[in-house]
Structures are given as C-alpha cells and as structure tokens.
Amino acid sequence: MIPEYLRNRPFLPLVTERLILRAYENKDADVLVHLLKDKRISDMTARIPYPYTLEDAHTWIQKSRIAMETGIA
To answer: What is the rounded CA–CA span in Å between residue 55 and residue 7?
Structure first.
C-alpha cells in the first residue's frame, strides 16, 4: 500500500551519472517490443505475452501511467 502522502504526486525522473529512470512514454513502445519479443524472455515470466506486439506495449504503457497517476500499483 502506498502511503497517502506519496499518492497523486508526479513521477519525477531519477537522474544519476549513469542513468535516467523515468516513467514510460508511448515513444518507448518500439524499444519494449524489440526487447520483449524474445521468446526466452516471455518463457521466464508469467505476464509477458508471446509474441509481444506494439499493441501490447502501448496497452502496458497506458496501464502503468494510470497506476502511477492513481497511486495504485
């Protein structure tokens, strides 16, 4: 459960010298498909469908953004 004081806050990117951790955006869909269309990946997970499609990526990005905005993860 997410504490109330953390709910409905914007997801601010976390920036270090080596990486930037930010919320997924629709522009990331192609990269997600490229990485997750590998059957070896889907075989090791319970929720990644195979074959992973662009529609799957856009759906997941939308759901993750809604979860962050509502505080339900």
So the answer is: 28
φ and ψ of 21, to 5 deg: -100, 115
Which residues, in sequence order, are CB contacts of 60 under 8 Å at separation 6+?
24, 32
User: Which residue type does 17 have?
Assistant: E
Q: Is 15 helix (H, G, I), strand (E, B) or coil?
A: strand
**Tokens (6 digits) for 71:** 């505080």
25-73: per-residue pLDDT in tens? 999 999 999 999 999 998 999 889 999 999 999 999 999 988 887 767 6
Tokens of 30: 């192609």
Q: What is the pTM of this model?
A: 0.76
- 3-class secondary structure, 24: coil
Q: Which two tokens stand for residue 7?
A: 């709910």
